[in-house]
Please model this.
Amino acid sequence: MKKTTKRPKVAIISLTSCEGCQFVMLDQGKKFLALLKNIDIREFRLLEDDPEKNEQYDICLVEGNPVTKDNIKLLQYMRKNSKYLIALGNCAALGGVWEIKNYQDKKKTIRQVYKKTKVENPDIKELDNFVKVDLTIPGCPIDGDEFMEIVWQLLKGRQPQITQNPVCDECQKNGYVCLLQKGQVCLGPITLGGCKAVCLKSKQACWGCRGLYEGAQNENLIKHLLKKFPKERVYHALEIFGLRDGFFQALNKDAVAAKPKAPIKKK
Amino acid sequence: MKIQVNHIGKMEGHADFIGEIIKGNVKSAKIMTTEGSRLIEGILVGRHFSEAPIITSRICGICPVVHKVSSIKALENALGIKPTEQTVKLRKAMLLVQIIHSHALHLFFLSLPDFFGLTNDLAFISQHKKETEAAIRVRDWALKVVETIGGRAVHPIACEVGGFKVLPQVKELRILADQYESILKDALILVNMVLKIKMPKFQRETAFIALTNEREYAFYGGDVKIAKPGETAKIITADKFTKRIKEIEDPYRAAKSATLDGEPFMVGALSRINLNYAQLNPLARGILNGFKWKLPQYNIFHNITSQAIEVVHCLEESHKLLNELTKELRPEKSQLEKYNIIGQANPWGKETVGADAVEAPRGTLYHHYKVNADGYLREAQIITPTVSFLRNLEADITKYLSNVKNLPEKKRAIKIRALIRAYDPCISCATH
Model:
């Protein structure tokens, strides 16, 4: 994103989600208010009830998943009218917890909830299946410090980068107990760090809410896990935060890449 | 005449309002939810019970603590696990500060601007710098308590079925307990601001429902107290209540709604104050007494006032708990770890059911599960507060519409939005 002298026009929208990532933003309190002085927030339903505007945005943050047709329409509209579009959080980036349904018989899943109401019940798909995404801020929910850092970088006209390291790095640095060694399904070795290994701090195994990091040794981990645990438990851990589809895609790619013995390419 | 209010902002989730007035009579008033259904109850079926608190806390980003705690308690009932006294205290502390930060956000940032004629919070904030800072300090403190005990403010991590995976540091709890006086001062700034508002004159008699127990102003659990207008309040068990409450599918929206004996009812801060006011802590009680209300209070706009009173009550109560925890906290393993039940079967060795209720910021929240012998969920049902009061809200708007129907369109929309927001609806929770 190019740096402009004017305060950039920003839209924050939410599709279908728990809105937790927006609350992480608000929970930054004074830091968030300081940020507001440097941007021109034009669309943010959580804080305003003004009539909708038809305008062009410099940055659009999209939280949640496009579950309904209206969600998709809004997403496409915002893409058309925004220079830079950010997928905010796990639902936008990886599909969110509700992607579990993709691995069930979704007609059965919906019958557990509704007997007669006609409710849209599509396969859950990530934002980048619908529109071009310029940047992803990962996590369920996003990490507040990382969010602030990324947005400030953007405002300075830089392209923010998240260092491609696994969650294990921060986990070890902080001296937390390795739950994989303790006999739990932990996806820390393949998951993008930057979350301060917050779950491991609370002795919760990592289930990959931030997605894979570039260069993750996916095959090693899945071999190890499938040797030690029933397949169902490994798959369930991969499903909770929508990692399963991306994980197996990456695995297949690795397998194809591995044939001519080519090193894993970094983007 | 059709009255439509689209994209109601400054609340959790997405909804529109559509009303119909025919020959001067309000024919219908409908809240249309406009976000997708995530089918949470459906996706839970077939998952291991230990995942339920993690998945259900994702129902809502503003009140993840209550979903987590409610889910854990229901599962413990199903599995026959009894949490220790210390675990209960830690959960209660999290629950109380959850109420504080949710209420503070709603009443200050979402609802109050309505009564200052402002549609945009950013304008409101810039006009009330001192109060904004106070509101932020109260929220920061409450969020810090959740983070300290739960490991993270949004979607806490440390609490699980059977206890806590890790315990908070006593040192950190003490720091938070010691900040009580200054946070209370900030909270009182907010209370004073709410006191100055002239709430619209509007009343409609309705049934109030909230949890109740003899020991305290109930949040963590209890029986269900039902007060219908003109009748003496009745108390029944939460289990019996879930059988009496009817969840209804409405063809025009993804969120369900609920009735009790065929009638709409109210839950939330106003309900709790109406039913349990005698158990409020001294400062909160003093504030309530100052109003000289004739209880029950039937003006729904006073839900906001009730939230302000509850902020003070919960501050007093959580201070008490934090002080006790600072003195008594001892190392203790979560019972899941102790008995190695993680990823394991139902301790009963057969299919069991369990349900439980807690008071969420917006009212009573029920979780119900059926766990099979292997420890996997066969059934899940979650009744959220917004589902409970949705029909009450529609009944209120129906009556309110006759008061405001002759106003110019813009002004009328502002009035309707303010009423809807006074309920503090959470459409994410309602649709789940």
In short: The CA atoms of residues 20 and 27 of chain B lie 5 Å apart. Chain B has 16 helices and 14 strands. Chain B touches chain A through 64 residues (CB under 8 Å). The longest helix of chain B spans residues 85-111.
